[in-house]
Task: structure prediction
Amino acid sequence: MSERKITAFLMFLDSNLMRMLTERRGTDYKDAAKLLYKSKLYSQLEKEETKLWHLSAETLYSLLDEEVQTGTITYPEEN
Result:
């Protein structure tokens, strides 16, 4: 997938994840952004070869929540 398409996907996912973080964690936008953009998950999400960008915002939120709670991420298996 081209860099441009991945960037477009990330923009869409970012906005959904930010909304979910602020609503579900009761945090403000600044703290939600800090949490998301400094996460291990986001650093992997930015890499095209991981294919994480194809996961739903809900799944990505669950992975991020797991990272926050446990410090680890259990990536879903591909079928």
Notes: Residues 3-70 form one domain. The mean pLDDT is 86.
